[in-house]
Amino acid sequence: MSSKHHSDRMTFERLVRPHFDRLYRLAWRLAGQKSQAEDLFQELLIKAYGKLDELARIDEPGPWLARVMYNLFIDERRRFARQRLHTVEEGNLPGEGIAGLSGSQDPARDNERRERIEALDSALAQLSDEHRTVVLLHDTEGYKLSEIQELIGVPVGTVKSRLHRARAHLREILTKSGTIP
Amino acid sequence: MRTENSNIEDQALQALLKDYPAPEAPAGFYEQALARATHEGSRRQRNRWIMTGFGSAVAAGIALWFVGGFFFVTPEATISEPQIPGITMTLEEPRTVNLVFASATALDSAMLTVTLPDGLELAGFPGQREIKWQTSLNEGKNFLPLTLIAVSPMGGEVLARLEHNDRNRTFRLRIEIT
Fold it and tell me: Which residue has the higher pLDDT, A122 or A86?
C-alpha cells in the first residue's frame, strides 16, 4: 500500500467513522431491507472516498454524508424504475428489525411489544415512500425538521405537511387495528 | 377541534414510533465497508486515468446467445450439458456481457438471480455475490447487459438463473482472468 493511499485512508476513516451508526440507521430507514441498506451504506462510502478532497474541506461531514446517501437512494430507485427491474423483497425492515429485538424477563410483555411493532410495520408499509421517510426520520430517529429539509431538499413547509399526513394515516390504520387506543 | 382521544392516540403513536427498532450493523461490517470503499475508490480513480489517457477505453461488449426459445414453452427437462461459454477478462477492467434471453411469450414477474464467484463483481454492486431482480420479459429476445469487474485473478463461473412460476433455467458463463 502506498503512503499516499495509506494517508488518504486514515484521513477518510477519521472523517467518516464518527457518523457510521447514524448513517447505518439512515440507510435502514430509507431502504427498509438489510441487503439494500448495507449496499447503500457501502455505495456511500465508495462515493465519499472518491470525493475525499471535498469531504476534507467540509466543517460538518455528517449532514453532507447523509445528503449524499439520500441522493444515492433516490438515484437508485429511479434507475430501477426506468429499467422495470426491481430488487427482490427479502423481508422488509419489520421482520429483520423484530428478529433483532432483545428479550426481557417478561415474555408476555415481549410478545405484546412484538405484535405492536408488527402492526406498525404493516402500517408504515402502507405509506408512500415520502411520508414514511419523513415520519421515521423525525419521530423515530429524532431528526429536526430543518435537518430533514436539508436532507431531502424540500421546503420545511412540505416536510411538516408530509409529517402531518403520515401521522394521520398511521393513526387511522393503527386505531382501526386496535394497536393504539 | 382536537379531542382528548386524539391526544392519547398521538402519544401512543409517538411512543410506538420511538420504540421502532433498527438493527445494529453486523460485527465487522464497518471495517469491511471501509476496506471495500478505499479499494474500490482507488480502482475507480485509476480507471478514470485510463479513460482519460486512452480516450475511448470502453469495455467491449460481447453477446452470449443464450437462446432459450424452448425454455418457457416446455417444462424443464434433462438437457445434455452444452459446452459452457467462456470469456477472458483482464483484472480490474470492466467487461460488459450481454445475456440474451429468448422467450416464446411476454412474461411478468420473472426472477433473475446472478451469482458471482469470489473475486468477480457486478458494476454497481461491490462485494455482492448474489444479486436478484424481478423483471419482465418481452416476447422474443431480451437483452440484459451485465458489466463485470474482476477484482482478483481467480476467475470462476457466473450463474444466471431465470425463474418464472415453477420453471427455471440456469445459464453458466466461465470467466478466466489474465
Answer: A122
Sign of CA dihedral B36, B39, B42, B48: negative
- CA–CA dist A161, A165 (Å, integer): 6
According to DSSP H, which parts of chain B are helical?
4-18, 29-54
pLDDT beyond 60 at B45:
no
* Chain B residues in contact with chain A using a Cβ-Cβ cutoff of 8 Å: 5, 8-10, 12-14, 16-25, 29-30, 33-34, 36-38, 40-42, 44-45, 111, 124-128, 132-136
At residue B142, the pLDDT reads: 67
Contact B22 A25 (CB under 8 A): yes
Contact between B95 and B64 (Cβ < 8 Å): no
| β-pairing verdict for B167-177 and B61-64 | unpaired
Amino acid identity of B77? Answer: A
Tell me the pLDDT tens digit for each residue of A59-117: 889 999 999 999 998 887 765 444 333 333 333 333 344 444 445 566 667 778 888 88
A48-71 burial code (b ≥16 CB/10 A, e <16)? bbbebeebeeeeebeebbbebbbe
Complex ipTM value: 0.79
